[in-house]
């Protein structure tokens, strides 16, 4: 199924989905009928400067969501926190995508796979108030100014996952619920910028929808088999562009070179295998293509912050205390 919308994510999107599924929106909540799937979408209108939508859904069939770039709402910025809590059926990397409203975006939601996302839509005036007006960071200014199309994709940190869990589990009574959601949404935006602004300030090249779609195909190909090193020649043929252009666009969107992104994804998967699947350190390393466990340990510690055995022990300790 293909669902297209030129509306920025928010009230327009949830209303369109209500019409599509034949459901009613009550108190900002759309509950999906069994014929369509299960789960809910909840919308918070937090005033002129911010809106939030929480999606916790499992669909009965694949759906492709297409957002057509539009000039209206150009002063609005959408922070799309996706795959916040990976599970066995959804192993996509948890990430946050931030894009200008004039770029076409396409997202495929697979059937029988939990969709857990938080969308935060803010007006540029809010960011201008939150940040020092004299801040000359290239990335920040590109987002706030809206002078050229942009898209940044950042892997979600553990701190962002914790705040997201607090939002989804929030049992705050009215009229304090909107106040609580607004505070937590701003915290998620802050934590996103903490990670984004670690990137080197490189020139922002003009993006178009075809380039964006191709870079996500390259990213998906990269993480398709984390036990096999990326083949740049194969990826270049897939992208149908020069290797230098492919690397430049990939790094602009994802903040890492292709190989560095692959290594980070590898270690996130290793952490999942050790913590959730209870694999031994050696089993996790071998599954991800490492024949030298000392090398695996060094790479794991670099990206996760702990040696894999200490990470495994810490995970067991946390489980015992739950």
Shape from CA axes? globular
N/C terminus separation: 41 Å
Largest sheet: 8 strands, antiparallel
Instruction: State the CATH topology of the largest domain.
Output: Jelly Rolls
Structural class: alpha+beta
Low-confidence stretches at least 5 residues in length (pLDDT < 50)? none
Number of domains: 2
Strand content: 15-25%
- Gyration radius (Cα, Å) is 20 Å
- Name the helix and strand elements from N-terminus to C-terminus, one letter apiece: EHEEEEEEEEEHHEHHHHHHHHH
Mean pLDDT: 84
- Count of discrete alpha- or pi-helical segments spanning 4 or more residues: 12
Query: Which CATH top level class of the largest domain fits?
Result: Mainly Beta
CATH architecture of the largest domain: Sandwich
In a nutshell, what does this entry contain?
By secondary structure, this protein is of the alpha+beta class.
Characterize the structure shown.
By secondary structure, the chain is an alpha+beta fold. It has two domains: 195 residues, Jelly Rolls (Sandwich); 112 residues, Arc Repressor Mutant, subunit A (Orthogonal Bundle). Helices cover 44% and strands 20% of the residues. The protein has twelve helices and eleven strands. The strands form two sheets. Strands 2-3-4-5-10-7-8-11 form an eight-stranded antiparallel β-sheet. Strand 4 and strand 5 form a beta hairpin. The protein is globular and about 55 Å long. The N and C termini lie far apart (41 Å). The model has no long low-confidence stretch (mean pLDDT 84).
């Amino acid at each position: 199924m293909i669902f297209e919308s030129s509306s920025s994510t928010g009230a327009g999107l949830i209303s369109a989905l209500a019409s599509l599924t034949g459901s009613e929106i009550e108190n900002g909540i759309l509950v999906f009928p069994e014929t369509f799937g299960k789960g809910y979408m909840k919308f918070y209108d937090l005033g002129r400067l911010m809106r939030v939508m929480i999606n916790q859904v499992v669909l009965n069939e694949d759906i492709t969501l297409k957002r057509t770039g539009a000039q209206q709402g150009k002063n609005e910025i959408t922070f799309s926190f996706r795959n916040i809590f990976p599970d066995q059926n959804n192993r996509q990397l948890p990430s946050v995508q931030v894009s200008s409203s004039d770029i076409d975006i396409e997202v495929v939601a697979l059937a029988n796979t939990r969709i857990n996302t938080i969308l935060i839509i803010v007006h540029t005036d809010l960011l201008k108030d939150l940040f020092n007006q004299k801040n000359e960071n290239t990335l920040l200014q590109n987002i706030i100014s809206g002078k050229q199309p942009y898209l940044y994709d950042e892997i979600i940190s553990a701190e962002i996952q914790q705040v997201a869990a607090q939002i989804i589990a929030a049992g705050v009574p009215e009229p304090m619920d909107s106040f609580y959601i607004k505070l937590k949404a701003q915290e998620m935006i802050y934590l996103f910028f903490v990670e984004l602004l670690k990137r080197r300030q490189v020139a922002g090249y003009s993006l178009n929808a075809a380039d964006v779609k191709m870079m996500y195909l390259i990213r998906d190909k990269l993480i398709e088999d984390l036990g096999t090193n990326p083949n740049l020649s194969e990826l270049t043929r897939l992208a149908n562009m020069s290797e230098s252009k492919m690397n430049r666009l990939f790094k602009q969107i994802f903040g890492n070179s292709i190989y560095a992104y692959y290594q980070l994804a590898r270690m996130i998967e290793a952490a999942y295998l050790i913590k959730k699947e209870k694999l031994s350190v050696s089993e996790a390393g071998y599954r991800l293509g490492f024949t030298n466990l000392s090398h695996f340990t060094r790479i794991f510690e670099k990206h996760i912050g702990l040696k894999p055995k200490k990470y495994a022990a810490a995970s067991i300790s946390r489980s015992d205390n739950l």
